[in-house]
From TrEMBL:
Gene3D superfamilies: Aspartate Aminotransferase, domain 1, Type I PLP-dependent aspartate aminotransferase-like (Major domain). This is Transcriptional regulatory protein. One of its GO terms (molecular function) is pyridoxal phosphate binding. Residues 3-328 form the Aminotransferase class I/classII large domain. InterPro entries: Aminotransferase_I/II_large, HTH_trans_reg/aminotransferase, PyrdxlP-dep_Trfase, PyrdxlP-dep_Trfase_major, PyrdxlP-dep_Trfase_small. Pfam families: Aminotran_1_2.
Length: 339
């Protein structure tokens, strides 16, 4: 990142002063096409646009496809900000239980038949918060049901590069027909160099670009997109991700061991990524544990923050990249014993 930033500063001064193109840097979009092809997603440049972040990508899609009162399906549990964003769009939120191989397919099919949702928002790879990954069998059944009920799927793939081996992608199996793929670089490169992307049908991308211009007068910062493009083109990104995956593998193992010693059991061991979704085997209420920890300035993530149905009171999500401070473990021991 530093090398890319220095190279940028020495070359094109216009990038530092001008607005970017409405669809975003063509150089970065072409690099993204290569990366999409690695997931067996064939696309052209007019099927990809850049956004200010992954969250902005989701927001634009909701602005484009939803009307107040529309029903949107999410996983239970799911990333908490999906729910906050959907409430801002006045959507009606329904949820489907999530399993180690993806959403409960039988329940998914029932919901589509009974609720007629407009969108389904999910993570196929290294699901947030559970760390689970979609199986190929589940993926095919989801797409069959979605086609039968005219459902559009938003596949948030921001954690995909943390997988040691690529798992099935809905966007690849569907061919970007009714699946919209979104991603970003905030988790893999830097949260301060904000840039997301959307890949989808060319006619939808055209409308989404117009909507982005209307709401934010263009895409992400040209400085951010130039830096990211230089990193991807320079070949250092793969080495960076290899090293990051190795560090996270060690961290997951170590954190899981320490959690189990406290009576906190991982729901599953993810193949990659940051998150461990864990059950409190002592019967403690996760929200009460989190409140006790917060009194000592330690922030924990209780399960019901992620649950539409509020059925995850005995679960917590842990980010293994943020658990190296010994004080956190001391506070957790006390919080688990708090009345």
């Amino acid at each position: 990142m530093r090398r890319a930033a220095r190279a940028l500063a020495r070359t094109d001064a216009s990038v530092l002063t001008n607005y970017g193109s409405t669809s975003g840097s063509l150089a970065l979009r072409r690099l993204l096409l290569t990366r999409l092809a690695e997931d067996a997603i064939e696309a052209s440049a007019d099927q990809v646009m850049l956004t200010g972040s992954g969250t902005q990508a989701t927001d634009l899609i909701c602005r484009f496809l939803l009307r107040p009162g529309d029903t949107v399906l999410v996983d239970d549990p799911c990333y908490f900000n999906f729910r906050a964003l959907l409430r801002a769009h006045q959507a009606r939120i329904v949820s489907v239980p999530y399993t180690p191989s993806g959403p409960d397919v039988a329940r998914f099919e029932q919901i589509l038949a009974g609720e007629r949702p407009r969108l389904y928002i999910t993570n196929s790879a290294l699901h947030n918060p559970t760390g689970a990954t979609l199986s190929l069998q589940t993926a095919h059944r989801l797409l069959t049901a979605s086609a039968a009920h005219d459902l559009t799927i938003v596949e948030d793939d921001i954690f995909g590069d943390f997988e040691p081996e690529r798992s099935p992608r809905l966007a690849a199996l569907d061919g970007l027909n009714r699946v919209i793929r979104i991603g970003s670089f905030s988790k893999t490169l830097s949260a301060s160099v904000r840039c997301g992307y959307i890949a989808g049908r060319a006619d939808w991308i055209e409308h989404l670009v117009d909507l982005q211009v209307a709401t934010s007068f263009g895409g992400p910062s040209p400085v951010a997109t130039d830096i990211i493009a230089r990193v991807l083109a320079g070949g250092s990104y793969r080495k960076h991700m290899d090293e990051l995956r190795q560090r996270l593998t060690r961290a997951r193992r170590e954190v899981a061991r320490k959690l189990q010693a406290l009576g906190i059991e991982p729901w599953l061991m993810p193949s990659g990524g940051f998150f461990l979704w864990c059950r409190l085997t002592g019967g403690q209420d996760a929200t009460s544990v989190a409140r006790a920890a917060l009194e000592e300035d330690i922030v924990l993530a209780p399960g019901n923050v992620f649950s539409v149905s509020q059925t995850a009171s005995r679960f917590m999500r842990f980010n293994v990249a943020q658990m190296s401070d010994p004080r956190m473990w001391d506070v957790m021991r006390r919080a688990l014993k708090a009345k």
